[in-house]
Amino acid sequence: MARRVPDLVDVELQKMAEVAPQLRSDNFNEVVKGFDEQQAIIEASRCVQCGMCHESCPTHMHAPEYIRSIWQDDLEQAVRWIYQSNPFSQVCGRVCTHRCESACSIGRRGQPVAIRWLKRYALDSLTDEQIKQIAAEGKTDVVTGKSVAIIGSGPAGLTAAFDLIKKGHSVTVYESQPQAGGMMRYGIPEYRLPYDRLDADIDAIVSLGVQMKLNCNVGSDISLDEIQQQHDAVVLASGLHLGRSTRIPGSEHARAVSAIELLRDISNSERFEVPHKAVVIGGGNVAMDIARSLARFQKVEYGEIDVTVTALEAQDQMLADEDEIRESREEGINIMPSRGPRRCIIEEDRLTGLETVLCTSVFDDEGRFHPSFDESDVIIHDADLVVEAIGQAADISYLGEQVTESLEWQRGRLQVDRQGHTAEAWLWAAGDLVEGPDVVHAVAAGHRVAADIDEYLLKRKARDA
Question: Which of 146, 273, 309, 361 has the maximal Cβ count within 10 Å?
């Protein structure tokens, strides 16, 4: 039976007020270990059920409902509410951009409710088997006889798989990497997203009957045409696995590398030469992720940290989350805003540094990307590794020339309708390939695509009958 919240004493409320900012941090894995049931109930009791979090969440998560269930100490019901809109709740309980907290009405006069942490608390309170049982609730026993192929096993692809398998369709996921997860696994460091929790989310989805084909490269191991012939609908959810380059002089050197590729190597536990001094080009979350990863390797290997992040943007305009920037500085990383890369310095075939110049503005008067520089303000940053983290791109070579030309593109992004349908009747797309990198937006896109494909397949089934 659900019980009411215990009497709240001032000292407990003060304790929660002090730790609340840490609950919203992206590095709170250690912070929450000592938290107990009473503290979770106290935090949940702060929610006034205004619904602003629900409206702001891309997945329209039932946050007020699961927070109320936590307040009532009914954690199974809380997780049941969570799984109605997000099969990647373990992931989003750790790395979501938590727009819900920015919208929280309580936050207008103090600290917002720690919604993301409460989600994580509820999920961590149940076993993986209990969560699997909840995830399977509502799965139909009816088999439609229709088959869907999904290319890519990131949040968009596997969310679509989750919805479609529960509707009775057969689902096969094609993944080029040895493990599922897409950029959640190969782009987010494990200190931010423990892979056992990522695996728990994936296992709950796969346990419903989703077929996984890992180490399967579409385009070489199997063609897109073959996949189309074998399935009734196809979803492109292959993400952004390529890094963009500055193309500055010297960037072709072997010790000038892509942040995306280096993060993938780290995720795969591949050995690499840890730099004594590293410079990262970029001011987004990926730049902070690779900077903090390198700093941790340096601390173990050399006992000291020497990592500098250079960003075009001014301090108050940097693209990374404020928590990411703050925590990077706390780890000893030197962040230098308003610096534009000019060239990698190569001496006798050896990379020795990066030259940057002061960036006075990033955009022109019409809002277009057009950086301006003060050429009199030049800095040489000593480095034996330069990492480019200025953006991500999709590898679409597997589509083939004919399909690529039949689709609509704008600045490298695939154009789709509101339901994720492409210009090809049998083809949908979702996730980073369409919207850019963000887990919770990818989950929302996966839901939209699955709903549209389900309607499409049921109409086909009715015609075939």
Answer: 309
The helix/strand count (H/E) of the chain reads as 19, 17
Higher-confidence position of 111 and 150 = 150
DSSP for 209-272, written as a single string: T-EEETT--BTTTB-HHHHHHH-SEEEE-----EE-----TTTTSTTEEEHHHHHHHHHTT---
Give CA–CA dist 406/429, Å, rounded: 14
How does DSSP assign 49-105, residue by residue?
A: ---HHHHHSTT---HHHHHHHHHTT-HHHHHHHHHTT-TTHHHHHHH---HHHHH-G
Q: What is the pLDDT of residue 35?
A: 57
Lowest mean pLDDT among 7-11, 62-66, 133-137, 303-307: 7-11
DSSP for 316-381, please give it.
Answer: GG-SS-HHHHHHHHHTT-EEE-SEEEEEEEEETTEEEEEEEEEEEEEE-TTS-EEEEEEEEEEEEE
Residues 6+ apart with CB under 8 A from 241: 183, 186, 260, 264, 392, 394, 395
State the burial class of residue 24 (Cβ atoms within 10 Å of its Cβ: 0-12, 13-18, 19+).
buried
The three-state secondary structure class of 108 is: helix
Six-digit token string for 430: 């979702």
From first CA to last CA, the distance across the chain in angstroms is 48
- The tally of CA atoms less than 13 A away on the side-chain side of residue 381 is 29
Q: Which two tokens stand for residue 402?
A: 């004919």
* Rg of the chain over all Cα atoms, to the nearest angstrom: 23
Distance (Å, whole) CA 252 – CA 75: 53
Which residues 6+ apart lie within 8 Å of 44 measured at CB?
A: 5, 67, 68, 70, 71, 113, 118
Question: By three-state DSSP, how is residue 166 classified?
Answer: helix
Vertex 323: Cα angle to 322 and 328 (nearest 5):
100
**Cα distance between residue 92 and residue 95, in whole Å:** 5
Partners of 393 in beta bridges: 242
Contact 86, 61 (CB under 8 A): yes
